[in-house]
Specification:
Layout (H helix, E strand, L loop, with lengths): L6 H15 L11 H4 L4 E7 L2 E7 L8 H14 L16 E7 L3 E3 L11 E6 L2 E5 L9 H12 L8 E5 L1 E5 L1
Antiparallel strand pairs: 1-2, 1-3, 3-8, 4-7, 5-6, 5-7
Length: 172
Amino acid sequence: MSAPFLPALFAREVVSLYVERNVILEVSFPVSDEFSSPAGAFVSIKTTEGLRGCMGTISPQQENVVEEIAANAIMAATRDPRFSPIVTSELSHLCFSVDVLGQEEPIDSPRELDPIRYGVIVRRGHLSGLLLPNLEGIDSAEHQVAIAMQKAGITEGLKVSLSRFAVTRYGE
């Protein structure tokens, strides 16, 4: 019997290999049914001081969740515009988590959100912003929507379309 796939540890392995040797880990192992379908995913990287990188995809760009995690882990470590790329000396101090997104569900108002249970996607024209669920300091649906709008560059008070989604969160 093979060992279970642990998404956050896999993300750590992908980032370590890329940062240390500039090598992209090939997904050359069998993928369990749970991770064989395509899905959006976010990889978050934190230190004891807070967020160090977080990137992901609303809709899948890869063949399966494992490949989505690998691609997004590298993006979170090297291309999050809020941070400089991660360097080798940081690797042992980082903590990884992976959120695999469930099906997006359009909603009519923030009253249909629960910021602990659901993430939110806001859209207006070509602009969109996403905020994952169960984030520290986000305790109301209105606050969750406001931050997602800010991330999208949408002015407060403008009408937006809303969608919610659940996630399966995997941590180290």
